[in-house]
Amino acid sequence: MRILVINPNTTRSMTGKIGKAASLAAGAGTEVMAVNPEDGPPSIEGYFDEVFAIPGIIAEMHRNPGMDAYVIGCFDDTGLDAARCATEAPVIGIGEAAFHMASLISGKFSVVTTLARSVPAIEHNLVKYGLSSRCAKVRASDVPVLDLEKPDSDARHKISDEIARALHEDKAEAIVLGCAGMADLANQLAHQHGVPVLDGVVCAVKLAESLHMLGLRTSKVGSYAAPLAKRFSGFYAPLSPSGHIKDSSAA
């Protein structure tokens, strides 16, 4: 199968890190391609950045049709619902994937994310997905997203310290890392703290493979129906919906 992993921000080094984690997790016979938009924010830190990242996600899907699955590589699940309208293939958000996986292996999990401004969006998603009762707490490590790309930053230590607090204060039984840019830290932190530490990129890839193996695709009845045909104006004209979805992977 073929999976397109979309990093919604424009930072190519992060795209490379996400793509590497996804490829290492993928099973034999799964091809992973990681991309990011050419236009948009260099990082997604809050609601304002999110809005400007969504058109780039849809544009990358348009450029890469016929994939067997798509993964949205932002923990806020930026543009996830819109992306599901744009294809019949499964579209997996790394936040939703990690929450579900954590709920299968622990009674309570805590999320350790980057900045405090990301906490409300993650809490909102937990309610939306029906998993808020399984999350002990969403914690901010006070690490700007782009610091995760700096080898000399103290980002890993701040995240580790917050995990320690989550285990002690929240009584968390597992930790979900709340940013795709943390994808390379999960195994090391799990070994250090002695509990499962989940990276959403890996979780999303394995869920995408499972859905493909089961022959399950995105329902086009109701919520995720194809967008109605209309002509968009100006900058968004190339993304104008035709009113139907045609995936070569469905042939």
Describe the structure.
This protein has 251 residues and is α/β, with parallel strands linked by helices. The protein has two domains: 2-93 and 204-243, Rossmann fold; 95-200, Rossmann fold, CATH 3.40.50. It is 39% helix and 14% strand. It is built from eight helices and eight strands. The protein has helices at 12-25, 47-63, 80-85, 94-105, 119-128, 155-170, 186-193, 200-213, and strands at residues 2-6, 31-35, 69-72, 91-93, 109-113, 135-140, 174-177, 197-199. The longest helix has 17 residues, at 47-63. It is globular. The model has no long low-confidence stretch (mean pLDDT 95).
Principal-axis shape equals globular
Class from secondary-structure proportions: alpha/beta
User: Which sheet architecture does the biggest sheet show?
Assistant: 4 strands, parallel
Count of helical segments?
8
**What's the architecture of the largest domain, going by CATH?**
3-Layer(aba) Sandwich
Distance between the termini: 14 Å
Q: Total domains, how many?
A: 2
CATH class of the largest domain: Alpha Beta
